[in-house]
Design brief:
Layout: H1 3-37, H2 49-78, H3 81-107, H4 109-125, H5 135-147, H6 162-165, E1 172-174, E2 193-195, H7 207-259, H8 279-288, H9 295-298, H10 308-321
Antiparallel strand pairs: 1-2
Length: 322
Amino acid sequence: MKLEQKIHVFQFLLTICNCLYLILGASILGCALWILFDTGNLLRDIHSDELETVAGGLFLVGLLVLAVAALGYAAAHCQARLMLLLYMAFLIVLILGQLFISLVLLTSQKKIEGALDEAVDQMIISYAGGRDLTASDRLLDELQRTEKCCGRTGPDDWKTNLYIQNLTNQDVLPCACFNTSCPSGPGGEPPLFGASVGNDSYQEGCKEKITDWLAENALTIVAMDASIIILQVLQIILAVYLYKAVSQQSRVKGSRVLMEPEPDQTDPGPDLREDQGGFYGEENRAYWDPEPPHTESTGYPNAQNPYAEHERHGQGYNQMYY
């Protein structure tokens, strides 16, 4: 395969990898934004340094991935060796950063799980009841209704709720804890609460569901990091081959320039050269023609000794007097 064809193949493959890299980078950035700013997930209410480190790291990695993908496309298109070197350096830095994030997430999963348990307990304590529900209250109701669970470890966790503690009859649960229509509670409780005794409420706590949900999300993030790391390794390999091909092309062009002779500034040109039969060469040929003229047919004096005729006449003159 010719060198130009190799460069075009590497450019095409690197462009495809950069497109996939861009998609994965956008996914990582979206995952970070979901953890940091979405009020509809439990992670938003967790106060954990480890989780904040993971979320902030994913956000930074997502932004860098978008920038590096653009740099890689420009480097492949322009065949710029300096840009290719920067591209490979940034890829290596991103790989190290992603490995660090994955390591923190895997080693800190128990701490994050404990922080999540504390967040759920606090959500149960501050549940608003019949008053205006907050985003956390709606999230807790959605969790219990969807996963068919009640409380973190069981229905008894709701006895810590501040609103229920102020009721005369504290044997009530939120309507999200029932698998049927919410029964009416005694004492005129708000419609979001119902009597728990003998009214088909969920007896399983939500802790196991929350743990499984957290493990699935952590596994998703680690799988995304692993996929993007594999792609980054492939990008580095293609960038190295493209860099070598571009360097070889530059060396070939440089050797061709050195092999081409520089034009002689003192050379009068082909029209003025005598050895090539130029214009002036034809006119001046009589002055340097080595062949003497034929003396017998023309009667011209010998071109090699123009004084020979005069010498002959001089000898005859001398013979007349001697």
